[in-house]
Write a structure and sequence with these properties.
By secondary structure, this protein is mostly beta strands. It has one domain (6-549): Porin (Beta Barrel). The chain contains six helices and 27 strands. The protein has helices at 6-21, 59-63, 73-76, 139-146, 198-203, 374-377; strands at residues 29-31, 38-53, 81-97, 101-112, 147-162, 165-174, 216-226, 229-236, 263-264, 275-276, 288-297, 300-309, 315-321, 325-332, 337-348, 351-364, 371-372, 392-406, 414-431, 443-459, 462-465, 468-473, 491-502, 506-516, 523-524, 529-530, 541-549. The strands form four sheets. The chain has a 20-stranded antiparallel beta sheet that branches. A three-stranded mixed beta sheet has the order 14-13-17. Strands 9-10 form a two-stranded antiparallel ribbon. The relative contact order is 0.13.
């Protein structure tokens, strides 16, 4: 097979982008049904985007410790220059009858030329790509990032009057979000309800959590009992894991997990290389659902929540065999977590302030010493439910957020501020305390905000905004409850850019993202532990996108 270089593919993709720009102006396609009670709308959005790395590899991040060989591929695979060259297509069909019954179907497809060529890796001795050329992407990585299509929404809905009340039902694949979280949904009730596209959160750090959740097959209901009181419920029919950056992709931090991970090196003299990956212990499809009560009083919206769910983030478990050496490793997704929570939201003039608090029982904790030693002692093998190898306990979570419209100033007539601070704490460790990551802390904090001034009608039909986003975790925040899912300790990311909308059908954006904080790989040492440092320190990037809806 002949492999083309990235620039050649880039020319082709730019030609495709030009073709997108040449699409004549047209609004969403409303199909004439000749029935005033029946509306059919078909929207399509084509998007071209690319991104460029602006800094070279930092030696401390590709060869700085004994575990670096397992945390360097996402770095070595991309030199300065093009890291993404992508076309996306989103199609959405909505059918509504009598304004209360209907269906929705949507799907997406994408192609990224960068992930369909050889990469820039020049270190065959540390590449964790064992089933093919060291400077190629694993097929799972290539598919997830480079060329795939998926069904998104596929559900029917209906609204029914029951006496003086109203019952709204949905059945099929759709997304659902409860609570008041904005950015840190994984610390809130929302994180229990749906898998998350972490790739999107990583590539656009200021993305709100609601924009990154993925739909799952489920049935959901909302029963409006009075104008100020409603009940909600859902039950899911399929478990899905979070969509993390695949092994070897630009935003990946570890080379052996999740999708595309093939094996890991162990820095043990004389140990056979590599340690191979075993079969995942995925969570079962049943056993996930929840209840919600919403009510308003004193001009404040309140919520009460009870959810049972399976973890959508993995734990790495090593299989230990006589005489006490690891034979392989696998990923386990913990089952049967329960969360009880409450929220309140109140508007003070131009500012909406919200708080959400919850407690989780049977929550899997940050573990780096999860070893299945059943083969050594002839005991029952560890599982992902009642006999885990990783640490499990009770945790507390709080999110405080604000949506604020700022007063007019000499900088901008119109501006908004979206911000959230989160905190979590491990209340107790109920199983396997020896497996806890020793670098983690019982308490952790994090903060994220987006300040966005907007300038209307800069030119006829053209609106422009300049978003500034900041994410940060203070020193000492190394979450024992969630692991390295927060911004780097005493670091994070800063992004600034410009976004525009023309005639409400064209969208464009240009942005720069900088990662700050002490540099280190995501894990280091042996036995390896989480560092909670900035593994993206040298991966600042510039991203451009243009899209058209028709």
């Amino acid at each position: 097979m002949t492999y083309c270089k990235k620039p050649n593919h880039g020319v082709r993709m730019l030609a495709l982008a030009a073709a997108i720009c040449a699409i004549p102006q047209a609004h969403a396609f409303n199909i004439d049904t000749s029935n005033d009670d029946l509306s059919v709308r078909w929207d399509n959005t084509l998007k071209y985007s690319n991104a460029f790395r602006v800094r070279g590899q930092n030696d401390a991040l590709i060869s700085g410790n004994a575990f670096s060989a397992n945390a360097d591929d996402g770095n070595r695979n991309f030199n300065k220059g093009l890291i993404s060259n992508r076309v996306d297509w989103l199609t959405e069909l909505d059918v509504v009858y009598a304004k209360r019954y209907g269906m929705r179907v949507s799907g997406a497809g994408w192609y990224d030329s960068v992930y369909n060529t050889r990469n820039d890796n020049n270190s065959p001795g540390t590449a964790n790509r064992f089933s093919g050329p060291y400077n190629s992407f694993n097929p799972s990585t290539r598919t997830l990032h480079g060329r795939d299509a998926e069904l998104l929404d596929a559900f029917v809905f209906g609204g029914f009057d029951l006496g003086s009340t109203r019952l709204n039902l949905r059945a099929g694949q759709h997304s659902l979000l409860w609570g008041e979280s904005l950015f840190f949904g994984n610390n809130a009730i929302a994180g229990a309800m749906a898998p998350v596209d972490v790739i999107k959160l990583a590539s656009v750090p200021s993305t709100q959590f609601k924009e990154a959740i993925l739909p799952v097959p489920q049935v959901s209901a909302q029963w409006q009992l009075t104008p100020t009181v409603s009940l909600g419920a859902f039950y899911q029919f399929e478990w899905k894991a979070n969509r993390l950056p695949a092994a070897g992709s630009y935003f990946s931090g570890l080379d052996f997990i999740p999708e595309g991970g093939e094996g890991m090196y162990l820095p043990i003299p004389g140990f056979p290389q590599p340690l191979h990956r075993g079969t995942n212990q995925n969570a079962k499809n049943s056993g996930q659902g929840g209840l919600q009560l919403r009510f308003s009083e004193f001009d404040t919206d309140f919520g009460l929540y009870a959810v049972r769910f399976h973890d959508k983030s993995q734990q790495v478990v090593n299989g230990i065999v006589p005489p006490g050496m690891p034979s392989n490793y696998h990923l386990a997704y913990h089952e049967g977590i329960t969360a009880l929570g409450a929220s309140a939201s109140h508007t003070f003039g131009d500012m909406q302030l919200a708080i959400e608090a919850s407690v989780r029982h049977n929550q899997a904790l940050a573990s780096t010493g999860a070893n299945d030693i059943s083969a050594l002692f002839g005991t029952a093998a560890n599982n992902n439910s009642n006999n885990p190898a990783y640490a499990v306990g009770r945790t507390a979570h709080v999110n405080v957020s604000t949506l604020t419209t700022l007063p007019s100033s000499f900088l901008a007539r119109e501006a908004s501020l979206i911000a959230e601070v989160m905190w979590n704490r491990v209340l107790s460790v109920d199983k396997n305390p020896q497996a806890l990551d020793p670098n983690s802390t019982r308490d952790a904090w994090a903060f994220r905000m987006v300040l966005e001034p907007t300038y209307r009608q800069v030119l006829p039909g053209l609106d422009i905004s300049v978003p500034l986003g900041i994410g940060w975790s203070p020193a000492g925040s190394r979450s024992q409850a969630l692991g390295p899912a927060l911004p780097a300790e005493n670091g994070g990311d800063i992004s600034i850019g410009v976004k525009g909308s023309y005639l409400d059908v064209w969208r464009f954006s240009l942005g720069y993202t900088h990662f700050y904080g002490a540099a280190d790989t995501m894990m280091s040492g042996f036995p390896p532990t989480f560092t909670y440092k900035q593994f993206m320190k040298d991966r600042d990037f510039v991203a451009l996108s243009i899209s058209r809806t028709f």
